[in-house]
Amino acid sequence: MTTIMHGVRPYYGGRNHAYGACDPAEPGTENSFGATGAGALSQPARVVERARIVLLAAAGLENKQIARRMGLMPETAARWRGRFLEGGIAALHKDAPRPGKPRTITDRQVKRVVEMTLHQKPVNATHWSTRTMAQAAGISEASVRRVWRARPWIETASGENLQAQQRSGVRREAGRYCGPVSEPA
Predict the structure, then answer these.
(1) This prediction's pTM
(2) Do residues 51 and 77 both lie within one domain?
(3) For the chain, how many structural domains are there in total?
(4) Which residue of 11, 16, 39, 58 lies most exposed, with the fewest beta carbons within 10 A?
(5) DSSP state, 138?
(6) Phi then psi for 36, rounded to 5 degrees?
(7) Does 111 lie in the same domain as 66?
(8) What integer pLDDT is reported at residue 165 of this predicted model?
(9) Are 81 and 139 members of one domain?
């Protein structure tokens, strides 16, 4: 077992976690990221790791030294130093785009689903289900779900939030049969 020279905990191999492997900030002093010592723990671990790379680089360490101290590859240290130089602190919060399957539905299809949701009713039904909307719009049920999930801020013609309008409609219907329904806490 080896230990990190100036670290707080032993290094067992693999990537370090957010806590204490090498925080160049003195305890109780504020670093350039606005975090005090171990206060950086409130950030996601990957952001803390990237910030520590940059802080060690600012302290004058080379990529190999940073990598050895933090249990990383030197390429990782070089990558985050470069991204910091290009984009500042904001660049530490962003991951590079990942490869993946391209979108299968167009903006036009998304707009159609939104328009139909807001302004049309399905035949022989009071509201749209994912199945009926998918069939009417000519897209998959999963695509309808993704569109609806991504659009909770859709506003109706009256300016009221769609979800708030649906909740009030449910309360109104429940009130017909059960008496008034109180607001949730």
Answers:
(1) 0.40
(2) yes
(3) 2
(4) 58
(5) T
(6) -100, 125
(7) no
(8) 58
(9) no
Outline where 9-161 has alpha helix (H): 45-58, 63-70, 74-87, 89-92, 107-119, 130-137, 141-150
3-state secondary structure (DSSP) of residue 184: coil
101 part of a folded domain: no
Q: Count other Cβ atoms within 10 Å, centred on residue 185.
A: 3
Task: Summarize pLDDT for 103-142 with one digit per residue, the tens.
Answer: 888 989 988 998 898 889 998 888 899 999 999 999 999 9
CB 148 within 8 A of CB 142: no
Domain boundary among 60, 92, 124: 92
Q: Are residues 65 and 129 in the same domain?
A: no
- For tokens 């429940």, the residue is 174
Domain that holds residue 53: 2-92
Say yes or no: 51 and 8 in one domain.
yes
Alpha carbon 136 to its chain centroid, in Å, reads 32
pLDDT digits over 42-65, tens only?
778 999 999 999 999 999 999 999
Helix (H, G, I), strand (E, B) or coil at 10: strand
- Enter the tokens of residue 43: 């950030």
Tokens at residue 142, please?
Answer: 């999963």
Pair 34, 55: CB distance under 8 Å: no
